[in-house]
Amino acid sequence: MGYEDFRREYLAGGLTRDMLDDCPIRQFEHWLKQTVDSELEDPTAMVLATIDEGGLPWQRIVLMKGVSTAGFVFYTNLGSNKARDMSANPSVSLLFPWNVLDRQVIVGGRAEKMSAAESARYFLTRPRESQLAAWASRQSRPVSKRALLEAQVQKMRDKFGRGEIPMPDFWGGYRVIPERVEFWQGGAHRLHDRFRYTRQTDDSWQIEQLQP
Q: Within 10 Å of residue 134's Cβ, how many Cβ atoms?
């Protein structure tokens, strides 16, 4: 069997304009709740696409840690490739691939760095081992073997003992402020339902249906 033979019909359900909330964030939260209720693994996993200094797009999966009308929140090492990309070009895209439900949500917008106070509030809620890993890893930098990384984690463990672990100054959050949001619902015979929200100058949203 060749790869071209892998296909299936998308029959989970349709999407019409009267099913949509006028606000894409409320619509997203509605779909996210349904995704969580379906017990899909990693419902908040999203693909983050950035553009590097050479103009090359790059993608990776990160976990969304918050959503509101202000935008979509995630955290990372501020020296990572993604952070450097966003510093040079804040235009990014997010993709939530909820394939089991025949759905996906695409967000296009601008990433802005969150304040240290906002980031610290979240950092202090992280599991202790995750806090140590944030200190130990120089994300995106080469390492000759895993044992060196594990040794660095142990070094941090010894350094902080049983005390509170502060947030590193090289770690923090980003908020993606959406300008466009597309909701995609798979349909039979590839007649998928697509609706795109576009932010207007008065911060209202225009909704239009797109051909599949």
A: 20
- The 10s digit of each residue's pLDDT in 67-110 is 999 999 999 999 999 999 999 999 999 999 999 999 999 999 99
**Would you say 171 is a known binding-site residue?**
no
47 within 8 A of 94, measured Cβ to Cβ? yes
pTM score of the predicted model? 0.94
| Strand bridging mode 91-98 / 57-63 | unpaired
Fold of the domain spanning 3-123+168-209: Pnp Oxidase; Chain A (2.30.110)
Residue 131 CA, distance from chain mean position: 20
Per DSSP, the three-state class of 5 is: helix
User: Which of the residues are catalytic?
Assistant: 190
Structure tokens at 207: 């909704």
Cα–chain center distance at 72: 7
Segment 140-182, tens digit of pLDDT: 888 889 999 999 999 999 999 999 999 999 999 999 999 999 9
For residue 90, the SS3 value is coil
Residue 180 among known ligand-binding residues: no
**Is 104 annotated among the ligand-binding residues?**
yes
Domain positions in the chain = 3-123+168-209
Residue 76 vs residues 16, 45, 171, 189: alpha-carbon distances, Å: 37, 14, 6, 40
